[in-house]
Each structure stands twice: as C-alpha cells, then as structure tokens.
Design a protein that fits this description.
The complex is a heterodimer of chains A (223) and B (117). Chain A is of the alpha/beta class and 223 residues long. Chain A is built from eight helices and seven strands; from the N terminus they run βαβαβαβαβαβαααβ. Chain A has a single domain, classed as LmbE-like (Rossmann fold, 3-Layer(aba) Sandwich). With 117 residues, chain B is mostly beta strands. The chains are: A alpha/beta (223), B mainly beta (117). The interface between A and B is medium-sized, with 26 and 30 residues.
C-alpha cells in the first residue's frame, strides 16, 4: 500500500480531469493524498457559460473551485503560487527545488505528474519536468515512484503502452462531481464531447466513457 | 461583465488621457486549440502591466463589432472583438471579447495601479 501520494499539476482542474479516479481510490484505501497545484489558472479562457468570472476575478474564483474539488476528493491541497502560462519560462532548477521542499516534508511513496513534452499544455510539460527533476535531486534510496501522465493525441504511438492503466469507472460519479466543482471550467472543457444531435444522456455517457480510464507511465531514472 | 456601453467606456478613457496607466492586453484561442482540432493553430499573446500614457483614446462600434485604439506618443495599442466590460472595485476598466460559449478571446484592461501578479 502507498504511504502518501503527491499529485503535481499546474492548474486547478488538472487533478479532477486527469487523476480524480486514482485519487478517490487511494483515499478509499486510507492513503493520504496531497495536491501541489502550480498556478491558479489565472490565464484560463473559460469564464463559465455564461461567464461568471473575468480576467481579474478568475484566480480567486478558481481558488475556491480548487478547494471545493479538494473537499469532494477528500485530499489536501497546497498552492505553489506560480502564474498560469509562465511556468516554462521560470528557472527549472528553482521550480524543482521548490517542489523538493514539499517532497522532503511530505515524504510521499508515489508522485503523479504530467509526462514532459507529451502533455499538450506548456505548463504541463514544464511542471512535469520540474517534478521529475525534484525527485531526481533526492537521495536515490528516498525517491518516491513517479507516474507521468501523457495526454497528447499520439502518445501511445510514441511512448508505447502505459505502465499503469487504471479503470476508474466505479469512481466516475465522484470524479464528475470533482470536475463540476470547477464551475468556470467544466462546461467549456466538456463541450468538446458534445456532438450534433446528442441528447443529454448520450453526452453524459460519452463524457463518462472518456474519463473512465487514467493512464500513467512509470518514470525510469537512469542513475 | 456587461455588454459594451460605448459612452461610459469613452468617458473612462477620456478621464485617463495623458495620465500614466497600466495595460493588460491579451488574445488567445486556448492552449488546447490544436489538440482539440488538429487543423487549428494554437495562438496567444499577452502583455501585463505595460506602463503607458495615451494621448488619444476611442472606442468604435461597427456592425456590433467593438474596437478600442489608444494612441501613444510613439505607438499604438489596439484591440478588436470586444463584447463585454466592467469596472472593478479598484476602478480598473476591463474590456473583453467572449465567444458564444463565454470563452475569452481578447482582453484590453486599463488600471491606474499595476494589475496583481
């Protein structure tokens, strides 16, 4: 059994879309989960439909949404205070050192993050790379296992079959609750699954299917 | 935010002519644009807290498309596709263009104090 799981993603909602099912499963086993959230998604373009946020109020609203999702997922959350869209321009070592301070304190047995260069959003690539670097900086005997999540269109062609293929259908209702806790983001992100002529039921089924598996690669350190 | 009100926005702009102000200017079609649609391009740009003085400022409506142009001593600031506006408690003017799903496509914001980081 894991001792403590740390999830490292850059935006409020990455945890719910990407790993909520896995988080719920660990919490059911009694494993503590802490989400290190890199930014507050300040530069998101989804403002709710109709809009309930603007560029200046978005960060505070997304912070509240993140806390609500953390409540739904029964996990701890720490906000790292970087700014949305800028992570790849920060000094990589500085970000990694910042993450390592949390890891040294929490001592997780498993870290979940994005797979650099296969995770679509530049913040995902950058924070994933920094998380992997943070674990590399640890003493070899103390390193947690790292699961890296790819989300690009063609990642299985490039990276092969993921090492961890987690069926989270049993957790889908709570996962969707966590996704919908991100009120400004959920409708906009999920609208890509709506197709002409779809009923609400067909839409819900398509969304549930799409989010019923969470896949990860186990990062291999070569030193 | 509320639908653009030309006269109120023009009055706000007029009040800040030749004063030092901070600008947030942005356009985006989303970081996932080419992920969701392979044929799309992911495009975005933003400037936050450029300190400028404008000598002329105008909001123009044409066929329900709103544009704002600010003339600087040595250049211009321009935004097209604005649909909504508000003034915050800090007296910042926020102008934004939203698509049919409420997503922000363009923003031009003016403040007498720097915008928060």
């Amino acid at each position: 059994m894991e001792k403590h799981v740390v999830v490292i993603y850059p935006h409020p909602d990455d945890e719910s879309f990407g790993a909520a099912g896995t988080i719920i499963q660990y919490r059911k086993q009694g494993v503590p989960v802490t989400y290190l959230c890199g930014t507050l998604g300040e530069m998101g373009r989804n403002m709710g439909n109709p809009p309930i946020a603007n560029r200046e109020s978005l960060s505070e609203i997304r912070k509240e949404e993140l806390l609500e999702a953390a409540r739904v997922l029964d996990m701890e959350v720490e906000m790292l205070g970087f700014r949305d869209k800028t992570l790849e321009f920060e000094d990589r070592t500085k970000v990694a050192t910042n993450l390592k301070e949390y890891l040294d304190r929490i001592k997780p047995s498993l870290v979940i993050t994005h797979y650099p260069d296969h995770a679509v959003h530049p913040d995902h690539h950058a924070l994933g790379a920094a998380a992997i670097e943070a674990v590399r900086m640890m003493d070899k005997s103390e390193r947690p296992v790292v699961w890296a999540q790819a989300i690009s269109r063609n990642y299985t062609e490039v990276l092969g079959k993921p090492d961890v293929i987690n069926d989270v259908r049993a957790e889908i209702d709570t996962k969707l609750d966590a996704i919908y806790a991100h009120k400004t983001q959920a409708a906009g992100v999920l609208s890509q699954f709506m197709q002409p002529g779809f009923s609400q039921e067909e839409f819900k089924k398509k969304v549930a299917n799409n989010f019923s598996t969470e896949q990860f690669y186990i990062w291999k350190y070569n030193d | 935010m509320e639908p653009i009100n030309v006269s109120k926005i023009q009055a706000y702009l007029d009040d800040r002519i030749n004063k030092s102000v901070y600008i947030h200017l942005e356009t985006t079609n989303g970081a996932y644009a080419s992920h969701i649609n392979e044929k799309a391009y992911t495009v975005g740009a933003f400037i936050r807290n450029a300190e400028v003085k404008f000598t002329n400022a105008k909001i123009i409506e044409n066929n329900h498309v709103y544009r704002v142009g600010l003339k600087l001593e040595i250049g211009w600031i321009y935004a097209e596709g604005l649909t909504d506006w508000t003034v915050t408690e800090e007296n910042q003017l926020l102008l934004a263009g939203h698509d049919r799903e409420g997503r922000l496509m363009v923003a031009l914001q003016i403040s007498e104090q720097p915008f928060s980081n």
